[in-house]
Design a protein that fits this description.
alpha/beta, 9-stranded mixed sheet
């Protein structure tokens, strides 16, 4: 005991002298305690920038022990500095930090992306933590649009494999000072300062909030697209939709390219501040190059022997989405675009005057005679006087519109004016009440002094500045499409049976809610399309199958349900108890089209009567049950250089912590084709495994390759395709 007392006295003396020889503090190399690193990125008018870096430790960090000098970082841009350091309980920036395992390093980003010097990262040695670290939530489903987007978030997974970012940015972090956990443990500077910690993930607010999917069109190829749903999305409500079309410089082959490369035009609508003003669904197609050329013609491309047309594919995508997402208000679909995307938008307005309620376009060019057809459209055009392409073209177009009797509001804006002045300029033009507005930035006022004030920069800065002006975006939402009558779109719903694909229902969309109790099978006549009638004729030229209505009710979505509910859709279920001839099953793909005529009175939920309409409405959308739940991919084999189309089904409640069986289906030679769908539409063997009733018994992945030629010949010899 006397020795213990003596030791206590010695420790007290040393403590009083400021000597910590009796401390039991444990200090270890911080590198072994880092679970993950991730950049936080944001999209600005002039580009995509890293604004912070998240470091996740294995224990909460004491924020009082942190300083900017404790870290050294390397990003994709030279000279970015750490401006603020704090801790947080989540991998996100915060106004006020709180104690947690995440250290947030905020970075300077007051540079112009066009003139920034890229960092040469060759020769940097680094290690990537193998744990989940700051990984975002996984995609629970990779099928087409979900009925419940909140349960299927679209996460931009930015893998850094071999230090090559797929979709995101790469950052390198060195800890050069000692920090402490909240329990007093010390994490020292990296012992090996020649090796950084690099990221595997990339956190991209707003960009990550969009669901990323592909649309396969039977006639025009496929197109990737991003779709954003409001944070508090409610499928019982109706929402306006904004469609953004990028210029050719922003367009790219990946979903995220169009969101990050072209300024804020694609993401501004989903920004929380904008959603608070105008809650909306945002649709952003992703494509390569211009989709409408300088002759105002849609561009067709040939890939893998198939001809595609992205412009027409996007138009069909919008039609498809209005039925797949039933709470898109078809009278409040808005179009916006920049550069060649604005040119494509003008063509869409001319080709589909019944689709878009209003358009906001930056720096387009178009043929004046054709554009004069838009004299009655709701349209706002913004250009720069110094843009030698867009300004002269739009000057002529406005004159052509006026020559046809259209009224155009015009104004010259000072690009260097303050935000309030530009907002006032917008309000002044709106107060004039013109359907068409034409605003032009005065030459010499738009491009930053550090850049060349040439035509190209003026063109680009038209939308960089324009999308920031208060009131311009809000103008779109003041417009609504005016239609004659109540009928809207007609959708055919199909299902694959053992003998082929059959129509199981048609859905008719009205502009008001229909009383389900008021409906009778005699109120409508359903007619097979000419293509189907030709396909199902027997050798005597007679249609030898009987497709007739069996049930009718209303619903809030274009889907079948055991019991109808009042809603904007009338669902007419069809008989399927017939057998398709083999040649019919093999020849009818997506051409399962139907026409509908209203022949009797029906009632709205407000008590209004909608009288019969002699107009014949053909369906413009096909919803393929189960088939639409497959995701399409091109797989390229590095060893052989061969490419194969693949359809993949992922279980609806996919959980990355579980393992699943996989079923591989190989189709027969009768459905060889150059697009993804024949094996799904004409072969029961693929879709049956993904059917809800089968998934309830045996949850599994389903892989269904689509071959463009036979894989085994009649001598049982495999071909190169296999």
């Amino acid at each position: 005991m006397k020795y213990k007392g003596l030791l206590s006295i010695i420790c007290l003396v040393l403590f009083a002298m400021g000597i910590s020889a009796c401390s039991t503090k444990k200090v270890e190399d911080a590198k072994g305690h880092i679970l993950g690193v991730a950049p936080i990125t944001e999209v600005f008018p002039d580009g995509w920038k890293t604004t912070a870096i998240v470091i996740q430790y294995d224990a909460p960090i004491d924020s009082s022990t942190l300083s900017a000098s404790d870290y050294k970082v390397i990003t994709d841009v030279e000279g970015q500095k750490i401006t603020r350091v704090y801790t947080n309980t989540a991998p996100a920036k915060a106004v006020q930090g709180v104690e947690g395992p995440y250290v947030i390093l905020e970075l300077s980003h007051d540079y112009i992306a066009d003139t920034a010097t890229a960092t040469d990262t060759r020769g940097i040695k680094s290690v990537v933590p193998t744990g989940d670290g700051v990984a975002p939530n996984p995609i629970r489903r990779v099928g087409n649009i979900s009925w419940d987007p909140a349960s299927h978030p679209g996460t931009l997974i930015s893998k850094n494999q071999n230090l090559q970012a797929v979709d995101g940015k790469v950052v390198y972090v060195y800890q050069v000072g000692e920090i402490e956990t909240t329990t007093g443990a010390g994490y020292s500077a990296f012992e090996n300062q020649d090796e950084a910690v690099a990221n595997y993930w990339c956190i991209n607010p707003i960009v990550d909030d969009s669901l990323k999917s592909n649309h396969i069109d039977k006639d025009y190829g496929s197109v990737k697209y991003n779709i954003y749903f409001p944070e508090d999305y409610d499928k019982t409500r109706s929402y306006p939709a904004v469609v953004f079309l990028a210029d050719e410089n922003a367009a790219g082959g990946k979903h995220a390219d169009v969101l990050t490369n072209g300024g804020i035009g694609a993401v501004t609508w989903a920004d929380p501040a904008e959603q608070a003003k105008h809650e909306c669904i945002v649709i952003v197609p992703a494509y390569r190059g211009a989709i409408v050329d300088e002759n105002d013609e849609s561009v067709s491309r040939v890939r893998q022997g198939s001809t595609s047309n992205t412009y027409l594919c996007i138009l069909n995508l919008i039609e498809w989405l209005t039925d797949k997402v039933p709470n898109i208000d078809i009278d409040r679909i808005y179009l916006t675009g920049q550069g060649s995307g604005a040119r494509a938008a003008i063509k869409m307005m001319i080709d589909r005057p019944d689709m878009f309620a209003a358009s906001l376009l930056f720096a387009p060019d178009y043929d004046p005679a054709e554009m004069s057809k838009l004299k009655d459209a709701n349209l706002w055009i913004v250009t720069s006087e110094a843009d030698n392409q867009a300004a002269p073209s739009m000057d002529k177009c406005m004159k052509a519109i006026e020559a046809q009797g259209g009224v155009v509001g015009k104004a010259i804006w000072d690009g260097r004016a303050g935000d309030e002045q530009l907002a006032t300029d917008v309000r002044n033009m709106i107060s004039e009440g013109n359907r068409i507005n034409y605003s032009v930035f005065k030459a010499g006022t738009l491009v930053p002094e550090s850049l060349t004030d040439d035509s190209a920069d003026n063109r680009t800065y038209t939308w960089r500045k324009g999308y920031q002006i208060e009131g311009l975006k809000g103008w779109l939402f003041t417009h609504e499409m005016t239609r004659e009558g109540h009928l809207g779109h007609v959708t055919t719903i199909t299902k694959v049976f053992p003998d082929g694909q059959k129509p199981v229902a048609v859905a008719i969309k009205y502009d008001t809610a229909i009383s389900s109790a008021s409906l009778d099978l005699g109120d409508f006549r359903v007619v097979l399309s000419d293509a189907w009638q030709a396909a199902v004729k027997d050798n005597k030229g007679l249609v030898n199958i009987d497709i007739h209505p069996t049930k009718i009710y209303a619903n809030i979505a274009p889907e079948m349900t055991p019991e109808g509910v009042d809603g904007n859709y009338v669902i007419i279920e069809l008989s399927t108890d017939y057998e398709l001839p083999i040649r019919t099953a093999m020849s009818v793909n997506g051409d399962t089209h139907m026409s509908v005529v209203q022949t009797g009175d029906i009632a709205t939920t407000d008590g209004e009567t909608i009288s019969p309409d002699s107009k014949v409405l053909a369906n413009d959308v096909v919803i393929r049950m189960v088939v639409d739940d497959f995701q399409q991919y091109y797989y390229r084999d590095e060893e052989t250089g061969g490419t194969v189309m693949c359809n993949l089904y992922v279980p609806e409640n996919y959980d990355k912590t579980k393992s699943y069986p996989l079923v591989l289906f190989i189709h027969d030679a009768s459905v060889v084709g150059d697009n993804f769908l024949p094996t799904l539409e004409r072969c029961y063997g693929a879709s049956i495994w993904a059917a809800p009733e089968e998934q309830a018994k045996h949850e599994c992945f389903v892989l269904d390759p689509q071959y463009d030629k036979g894989v085994v010949n009649d001598q049982s010899e495999y071909t190169e395709a296999l």
